[in-house]
Amino acid sequence: MSSLRRAMATVCVSGALDEKIAAAAAAGFDGIELFENDLLVSPWSPAEVRARCADLGLTIDLYQPFRDFEGVKPEQLAANLARAEHKFDVMAALGTDLVLVCSSVSPATIDDDDLAAEQLALLAERAQARGMRIAYEALAWGRNVSTWDHSWRIVQRAGHPALGLCLDSFHVLSREVSPDGISGITDGKVFFLQLADAPRLGMDVLQWSRHHRLFPGQGDFDLTGFVRRVLDTGYAGPLSLEVFNDVFRQADPVRTAVDAMRSLIALEDGIGGRPLPAAPALSVHAFTEFAVDGRSGPALQDALRGLGFAHTGQHRSKPVQLWEQGACRVVLNSAVVRPQAAGTAALSAFALTSADPDKSRARAEALLAPELPRARGPHEADLTAIAAPDGTSIFLSRDDNDWRADFLPTGPVLTDGAGLTRTDHLGLAQPFDHFDEAGLFYHSVLGLTHSTSGEFAAPLGLMRSRAFTTPDRGIRLALTVALLRRGDWAPAVADPQHVAFATDDIFATAAAIDRLGGTTLQVSNNYYDDLIARFALPGNEVDRLRRHGILYDRDPDGGELLHMYTPVYGGRVFFEILQRRGGHDGFGELNAPVRMAAHRHLRLSAARELPR
Amino acid sequence: MSSLRRAMATVCVSGALDEKIAAAAAAGFDGIELFENDLLVSPWSPAEVRARCADLGLTIDLYQPFRDFEGVKPEQLAANLARAEHKFDVMAALGTDLVLVCSSVSPATIDDDDLAAEQLALLAERAQARGMRIAYEALAWGRNVSTWDHSWRIVQRAGHPALGLCLDSFHVLSREVSPDGISGITDGKVFFLQLADAPRLGMDVLQWSRHHRLFPGQGDFDLTGFVRRVLDTGYAGPLSLEVFNDVFRQADPVRTAVDAMRSLIALEDGIGGRPLPAAPALSVHAFTEFAVDGRSGPALQDALRGLGFAHTGQHRSKPVQLWEQGACRVVLNSAVVRPQAAGTAALSAFALTSADPDKSRARAEALLAPELPRARGPHEADLTAIAAPDGTSIFLSRDDNDWRADFLPTGPVLTDGAGLTRTDHLGLAQPFDHFDEAGLFYHSVLGLTHSTSGEFAAPLGLMRSRAFTTPDRGIRLALTVALLRRGDWAPAVADPQHVAFATDDIFATAAAIDRLGGTTLQVSNNYYDDLIARFALPGNEVDRLRRHGILYDRDPDGGELLHMYTPVYGGRVFFEILQRRGGHDGFGELNAPVRMAAHRHLRLSAARELPR
């Protein structure tokens, strides 16, 4: 398969037309679909837009949309053709030869395929006279024509060389009609291909389309199968994204365009186009690094000591400490330059082992996640580092231990601190604008698999969650985001972050933490009273949970999750300790509001005790 | 009709349980519905919650929800009854005797009304033994029971004195089944009444219910008719709000509870319960006041002068100027104490004439919008002032002119400045958390009527709009809000505000403004080229519009709107000039993105010319 050109509709991103075009060019697109409204509000003339695109190496692949053309009475037809001639004038000035005509939504449309075909043929004749072509698209909510196969019958009936189809994955895959027959479209009659993914939502298809589209790989549609079928027809035009999304429409267009391009690169790899370096297997969560300062550093040290960690190493050249317990490693870094308030801490990096770090880096680079430059002393480990969408650095090393040579030992690793064995997962609240971008990043760049998704009511508003893991669950990441960007009253508390450590016996761990003087989060008594009713657990078992503030969940197969939390340190960071039994694969999402309420209670209590 | 008690479900508002309860009490509610999850995550025991509510004068009217009880096999029934006994324990500690049992959503539910009735009767028997009662509710998405009439048949079949209905306006009015028959429910069998409004949305009813409920009067449901029917049955329990709303769930609970209470007060008036002072007729938009400082003041003066306004008066005791043209009045106030950045301006107040300002004030006060205290010099007009949800002061006076005595004349009113005749409307971008609150405020407190609503795509994201007017259109307010709270990349520019002035001849006005050296907003040429195609307007007419940057819209009845704008002054404020022809009743919403793009172009151009 030869390489396909890549395009993006201007409607995908926020801003004025010049900002949209600049963003598309910066992300490496070959062309754009120009959305008419973006042109109408622009101070640039069509000729200026054409020149600007040419300067940036972008073609204008499609002008869109032209609405409510076909299935009209003769007098309306004349008016519609006059409208079309005006669009052709604009297209001539833009230097584009293809216009999208979407199936009519007007209640007045006459339901007669012959009439529609005849009128579209007339339009195509006019277009052809000016060296232009018509791409006819069945809107999923079209008045009479709402499925791809119906639009194809009409195009065949019209039989005009300047009339073909525009296939939009959303309009096709949001309907019940199978896309299988697409492969049978003949004579190069697919003139244009628009791509959008979407979550499966039970809602009016127009609203679904206008608000909730996503880039390929971010939703639930089978884009790979869809594109393969279209390519079977001999289609050689661009892969063009047309994504209406409320969040993308108000986010930084440069970031969004990169996210868009990443989705196409991953999709092309999936369909066997330009292949990417395969994602090397990731296996172990090697360490987690926190950026700290003179106030938050000691707070985290105390917390770790209380959980049974020991300070085991000091970095050779930087003010960086290593803390360990079993295979749990935490790095406290006082040298990270990040814009954060004094006294706060932040999860600044985490390290994973890769079967082939060079290949991981090459894949990341091909997916527009380039290696981060790092200051490194002589003899220090050469870790590959890339940036996640939330700004966290991700280190990739071949060996779980090669980076440890950077640290001078300061004490032995405790194996019997509190029985913590390894890092189970990270919980990362994502910046509002970048949740779907983060999901695509972890899936495409790191090759992690989407495991669970959900929505839950937290004390300060609704939350969404989405988890990514390796097949063997050696690495797990749980992403969350507020459903609405939080305002003054319910701030998102700087996107809290946490590390969850595994234990094989949470009760023994809890007892050890008690002995060590560590602090865990107190949980409402009401929660435990209800547990008895919810799961029909014996009262004395619940009392054991209650004593240590251990939360409980059980899946339909009987797998159990027992987990407990610490308070929040440095304004943003906390720890979780958990035990999975019987292959429980979740994250205790139902218990998240309990944890959040307990954290809020601590914060409000502290605030009330502060002198006014 | 005797007064009904007023209650609010804790799920209506944000925060921890103590914050929710305090907010309900502060807003004057008599009771709460305690949502189980709010209790489970609370550090307070049920007895402590009971005591806290008693301290604040709140009763706990309902504990909810108890799920998936009925239509199960015998072994499951035993477990469900055990679960119920646990809830009864909690209820006893809370001191409440009523629990909501919602119709089962479990796929395993047996579809057998006799079985459901029999099992609910068993549950009611258990409840009765403890002096408690069961309110059975048909969830709109219940597995077998999803309509009120079905739940009523089951309750009748069960025939147990401790089993009655819970009627929820959302579950009833979101379904096709008519609520008319509700009046026929006998024997006081409506045990509880839950109220929620909602916009009519084409989406899955569960999602609709969980995210988009509104307080009565904010949506499209006929709550008045619904409540009347329930009262016909002899229901004498509380009117209780149960509103799941994504925005309310993350907003200030104290504000939200006041909004909730206002909705109930207005509803009770509507059903002929506790009557309010009738809303006196409002007629004229008397003046608009801007808070300015030493930098924004002169900028607004220049702008007004360029539009043909004259400085006609100086306030007797304050640094306040009056500017006039025809019946258009603008007040520039340098003495307003508002937290705003230096150099900025803000629409701080507007004045309307009321047929009875005292009654307007009394109605506002009854609707929890108390009079604002004002500093007033001797001999100065005693204007009633109340605060709108966005903080704007609204002055109400009997006479269009009595407040003018506060100003010493500084020059004559120009009648021929630029032909502006009167204030047509205000355009007020609302703070994100308070859009629905504002709608209810203008409707209930001021008695304005909702005219149009819409949604449109702006350059920096989607927007919603909602307009309120007097019957004769003497006063119009157009509210807008971003669909998502804007973030760093696309800030809401401090919620822009504008005044639209009417003219009888916009071309003459535009020519006069040119002569006066005034500045109006340049509009994209592309917009005009498209107008020709869109409305089949003659080219020379469009060129007249183009020359002056006049935007155009036409309604299906041929009514026309011609309107033009100024640049933004003081970071936030601009003016519009418009001419309505043939009874056009809109606000040119389709043109709003054109205006926004032009404003953005000016801002970006200015930023690019700034030295770095």
Automatic annotation (TrEMBL), chains A, B:
Pfam family of the protein (one): AP_endonuc_2
Pathway this chain belongs to: Aromatic compound metabolism; 3,4-dihydroxybenzoate biosynthesis
EC number: 4.2.1.118
Residue sites binding a divalent metal cation per the record: 137, 168, 194, 242
GO biological process: 3,4-dihydroxybenzoate biosynthetic process
Alphabetical UniProt keywords: Dioxygenase, Lyase, Metal-binding, Oxidoreductase
Cofactor: a divalent metal cation
Xref: InterPro entries: DSD (IPR043700), Glyas_Bleomycin-R_OHBP_Dase (IPR029068), IolE/XylAMocC-like (IPR050312), VOC_core (IPR037523), Xyl_isomerase-like_sf (IPR036237), Xyl_isomerase-like_TIM-brl (IPR013022)
Domain annotation VOC: ranges: 422-566
Primary enzyme class: lyase
An MF annotation (GO) of this entry: 3-dehydroshikimate dehydratase activity
The reaction(s) this protein catalyses: 3-dehydroshikimate = 3,4-dihydroxybenzoate + H2O
Binding positions (Mg(2+)): 425, 498, 576
Coiled-coil region: none
UniProt family annotation: Belongs to the bacterial two-domain DSD family.
Function: Catalyzes the conversion of 3-dehydroshikimate to protocatechuate (3,4-dihydroxybenzoate), a common intermediate of quinate and shikimate degradation pathways.
Name by which UniProt lists this protein: 3-dehydroshikimate dehydratase
Originating species: Paractinoplanes toevensis
